[in-house]
Design brief:
Blueprint: H1 2-11, H2 16-31, H3 35-83, E1 88-93, E2 99-102, H4 104-110, H5 114-117, H6 122-125, H7 132-135, E3 145-147, E4 150-160, E5 170-178, H8 180-191, E6 194-201, H9 204-208, H10 213-233, E7 237-242, E8 245-251, H11 252-261, H12 265-268, E9 282-287, H13 293-309, E10 314-318, E11 323-327, H14 338-353, E12 357-361, H15 368-384, E13 388-391, H16 400-407, E14 416-417, H17 419-425, E15 430-435, H18 446-451, E16 454-459, E17 473-476, H19 483-494, H20 502-516, H21 525-536, H22 541-546, H23 552-563, E18 565-568, E19 571-574, H24 582-592, E20 600-606, E21 612-618, H25 624-629, E22 634-635, E23 639-644, H26 649-664
Parallel strand pairs: 9-10, 12-13, 12-15, 13-14, 15-16, 16-17, 19-20
Antiparallel strand pairs: 1-2, 1-5, 3-4, 4-5, 6-8, 6-9, 7-8, 10-11, 18-19, 20-21, 21-23, 22-23
Helix pairs in contact: 2-3, 14-19, 15-19, 15-20, 19-20, 19-21, 20-21, 23-24
Length: 665
């Protein structure tokens, strides 16, 4: 109240109005010729003017002093507020992060002496600090900072000093908000989120086969004991809901630890052995980051289906964005039956008959298995009365000799078309049959896959994180030796022996011979059944052998690749510097397996187009599909490959060595 009166007194109206009227009266007195009175009035007005000037000057000084007093009080209050503000505040240079000013709370937070730390850099107090986020226009530091055992969220902005020509004119101001309690609650919430899962005993039938009920119960108890111990160790629950299926629930914190250990339960389960010498094998699907338990179970179901389609004996974790794979190093247990092949054959026949035309497409740089399977599908289409075409790049493939022989037949004269022609031919009733791959990024022409609404997939490779979804038919059997083996089984159910041309039988037999390395790897009873069937309907093994012949130049290149090979932890790695033919590189990888003590081989070489590729083979415990998946590729246990676009071969070789190191530990 007192201050308001003082302000009112300082700014109240002055004597200027009164002087004006006095001068007016003096003038009037002069007008009436009262000169002495007018002179007296003039002197009085002059004295009054002098007084007013002096008074005005005095008031101006008083007002100035008052303003200075208020300003001082304001600055003092502001300084006290900033110094004692509950938030930690610091001002720093943007070029070297040197601290210009900080309040007491900031230095208390950093447990540092104010005087000694004024010339220090903020990065000395806050390790790994960077002001890049401020330069990008962001207002909040991208991560939580930990200082003195507490957690802080840093807010800030850039300010400019008055020194326009100074290179260090820009400064940053940061406000450190203590979010320790909030972040701990957030972490506890995330760590305690339930992660449901499904466990399947892969080979329950084989374990129980020809065993008494008592032995069956003993085997089941051993399996459940290991699962129960696994759940107890990780604070989870386990319930059996089917003969060979269990549901599990863990907190997310324990899943993180399981990932680091790579789920030892999968390997531990192999310790359970039946009297017949068969080791138990399990597959696990876990659903992580679901919005609720319903979505979590859906993720777990997708994970277990993918694990089983990849051959079992592994863990697949499905989250909102992708899949994670663990295990899968063991040998697949064949579960294919004639019943499944018959069902798939009938379904494919119906799809073929309901189509206006059929387009058959394999993977990029098609090999004998892809082309042989495509030829088999054309035979099926002919049997169903539907026109078929094989979509392939006639310039970039590894089956040129077979393609030339097939095109020489009248039935296949105009059968091979380019991807661009296929895209123009496709309509709403076209059936696209994809063979020898299940990954959309590896097909001959991805745009054609996107353009066709009706798709069938026939493949023998294990399903990867990316696979062709929403297919009308999916015949994916990782237990089969080759795509040609699967097509042969379908042909046995639909076509008569007289419906299959000799060249078609030889093409499919060549695909089987290629992927089994002349029946030395990945062969089962069904493989030999398919081969004998093809042989019976006219396939000439001598003609098939000719398809594998190479010219002198390729033979020399192969042995040059072998000369560059080195042994690394039991894996033969060849890294020639010159661009190589993919077929020759694959043959060299096969040849390296003949070296004593070598269980796996990898050939990595330039592709001549600014990139590189790797071809891997295995005859031992090493699963080269897992090895190549780490590099973005795929395949099966004994044969896999990867491509490195826009990457120097030396860098690709380093990645191969890194993948081997990670795999073997």
């Amino acid at each position: 109240m007192k201050r308001n009166k003082k302000i009112q007194k300082l700014v109240e109206p002055g004597a200027g109005v009164y002087l004006f009227f006095l001068l007016l009266f003096a003038a009037a007195t002069m007008f009436f010729k009262m000169y002495y009175l007018a002179a007296a009035e003039g002197v009085a007005v002059l004295i009054l003017i002098v007084y007013v000037v002096i008074l005005k000057h005095k008031k101006a000084k008083e007002l100035s002093a008052y303003i200075e007093e208020v300003k001082y009080d304001t600055e003092n209050a502001k300084n006290n507020t900033l110094m004692n503000f509950p938030l930690s505040i610091a001002v720093f240079r943007m070029d070297d992060y040197r601290i210009i000013w900080g309040n007491d709370t900031f230095f208390e937070m950093c447990a540092s002496d104010v005087v000694s730390r004024l010339d220090a850099s903020i990065s000395d107090i806050v390790p790994d600090f960077s002001g890049k986020w401020l330069m990008e226009g962001k207002k909040v530091y991208p991560s939580i900072l930990e200082i003195g055992g507490r957690k802080y969220q840093l807010h800030g902005k850039i300010i400019r000093s008055d020194k326009e020509d100074d290179t260090s004119a820009f400064m940053g101001i940061g406000y450190f908000v203590d979010v320790t309690d909030y972040d701990n609650i957030r972490l506890e919430y995330e760590n305690s989120r339930p992660v449901p899962g499904i466990v399947v005993v892969d080979n329950m039938e084989e374990l129980f086969k020809n065993q008494t009920d008592r032995v069956k119960n003993d085997i089941r108890e051993l399996i459940e004991d290991k699962l129960q111990q696994w759940c107890l160790d990780n604070k989870g629950i386990l319930r059996r809901y089917d003969r060979d299926r269990y549901i599990v629930v863990f907190e997310k914190r324990y899943i993180r630890e399981m990932k680091l250990q790579k789920f030892p339960i999968v390997e531990n389960m192999h310790q359970v052995e039946s009297p017949a010498g068969i080791n138990a094998s399990i597959s696990i699907g876990l659903g992580e980051d679901g919005e609720n338990l319903v979505e979590g179970i859906q993720f777990a179901d997708m994970g277990i289906e993918l694990a089983l389609s990849r051959g079992g004996d592994q863990v697949v974790i499905k989250n909102k964005l992708s899949f994670e794979f663990f295990g899968g190093r063991g040998y697949e247990v064949e579960k294919r039956t004639k019943v499944r092949s018959r069902v798939m054959a009938n379904t494919l026949a119906e799809l073929l008959r309901d189509s206006s035309q059929v387009l058959v497409m394999g993977h990029r740089y098609a090999d004998l298995d892809a082309v042989g399977a495509a030829v088999g599908v054309c035979c099926l289409s002919r049997k169903c009365g539907v026109r078929a075409n094989i979509v392939i790049d006639l310039e970039k493939n590894a089956a040129g000799l077979l393609i030339d022989r097939v095109r020489a037949e009248a039935e296949y004269k105009d059968m091979f078309i380019s991807p661009q022609e296929a895209l123009l031919k496709a309509d709403g009733h076209t059936l696209l049959v994809v063979v020898d791959t299940n990954r959309p990024e590896q097909v001959e022409y991805p745009d054609l896959l996107s353009a066709c609404n009706r798709v069938a997939v026939i493949d023998h490779h294990r399903v990867a994180a990316t696979y062709i979804q929403n297919a009308a038919l999916g015949f994916i059997e990782p237990y089969a030796s080759s795509a040609c083996e699967l097509i042969t089984e379908i042909l046995q159910e639909i076509a008569d022996e007289s419906d299959i041309l000799k060249i078609e039988a030889e093409a499919m037999l060549a695909g089987i011979v290629l992927d089994t390395k002349s029946f030395s790897i990945r062969t089962g009873e069904r493989t030999f059944d398919a081969a004998s069937y093809l042989r019976r309907i006219g396939a000439d093994t001598a003609e098939v052998k000719k398809l594998f012949q190479t010219d002198m130049e390729d033979t020399i290149s192969k042995y040059k690749i072998l000369q560059s090979a080195k042994l690394y932890k039991g894996v033969a790695v060849a890294a020639p510097q010159e661009p190589q033919n993919r077929v020759v590189a694959a043959q060299a990888a096969d040849e390296l397996l003949n070296i004593s003590g070598v269980t796996a081989s990898v050939v990595v070489a330039p592709n001549g187009r600014g990139g590189a590729f790797a071809s891997a083979r295995s005859i031992g415990e090493i699963n080269v599909q897992i090895l190549m998946e780490k590099l973005g590729g795929g395949g099966n246990r004994s044969a896999a490959a990867a491509q490195f676009e826009n990457m120097d071969y030396s860098e690709a070789a380093e990645k191969v060595y890194g993948a081997i190191e990670e795999y073997l530990g």
